[in-house]
Amino acid sequence: MERIRLREPQITPVEGGFLLSDPYGVFPKPVALTEGGLFLVSLMEGKTLEEVQEEVFKAHGVLVPRQELEDLLKALEEAGLVLTETVERRLREEEESLRKERPMRLAGLSYPQGEREARAFLEAFRASFPGPRPQGGPSILLLPHLEPSRVPEAYGAALAALEGTPEPERIYLVGVAHRPLKEKAAALPVPFQTPFGPAEPDLAALQALDALLPYELFNTPLAFREEHSLELPLFFLKGTFPRAKVLPLLVARRSPELGEALKMVLKDHPGLVVLAVDLSHVGPRFGDKPFSRPLAEEARRRDLGFLERLAQGEPEAALALLGGNPTRVDAVEVVASLSPLLTGRRGQVLAYRLDLEAPTLSAVGAGTLVFPTLPG
Prior knowledge:
Layout (H helix, E strand, L loop, with lengths): L9 E5 L2 E5 L9 E3 L1 H10 L4 H12 L5 H13 L6 H14 L16 H13 L12 E4 L8 H11 L7 E7 L8 E3 L15 H10 L15 H13 L4 E7 L4 H13 L3 E5 L4 E2 L10 H19 L3 H8 L9 H6 L1 H4 L5 E10 L4 E10 L5
Helix pairs in contact: 5-6, 7-9, 10-11
């Protein structure tokens, strides 16, 4: 019997057990398992079903019916979590497609698909921010990747910061990787489709960046397939700067090499650097008790302290303030990676909101921070 080869699944705890799913979303159907089912899956890698039966019997004195194991294996195959020839072919096809372009995934859901409607959408978000436009054009911008309708003033503040400034030749868009990467960071050198036309990649700048890193930058195309931390900010950036090229980057783990490399590449390929990050994640969705005033106070204190220290040009102090990151600020790995770029720059916090997701009694923080000038 052929030995089982498993892919690393995305595991989501749910009431009564777990959902196992394809981490890249190529296969949309998840598998619902009890704790016992998850245990059986943990034994399968590199074994036959007979060997799984034998191992369970030796350890627990229980003979798992062969049909139960076959049904479990079939469900895992349908979820794309077993490396069969069919699954491998499907993954290759999807990866090849992503090497040509990255299509819109959230058009019609998070933003309009048509250009005229998208322009009106953009203007409405700008109107949602009542504050004055900051003086000077930004060199670095921190903005959310949260669903736009939840924090319109944060996106509006970003649009205000960009308003009237010269269009950069390129935009370094650095998002949070919500899907596994083979390396600490990754890039996808293809056009990203938007309602305003394709955002073209800057291949020369991407190649220069890749050459300076100790790892292969173009390493996980599938991680970009459904990544909202790039798609949502890019909608606003492309609508504001239609001719600017884009360097779409994802960060999974702290990579100071990336910050140092970006610092070097910016000398020959100057452009706007955008950090697409959210802040605290609190409430039952994230393992806490229901959202409450004490939880809100803690999240706001950490978020605003984090943003204020970044605005003072002290990224290491901002990270230290979070300690063990009990409120799950998802900006940590991006800020830690880009610390060489952020140190010594003076910025301004334009907007902040801790947004309640009422159905789950959870909340997510989002802010906008602009660094209008380079350090002397």
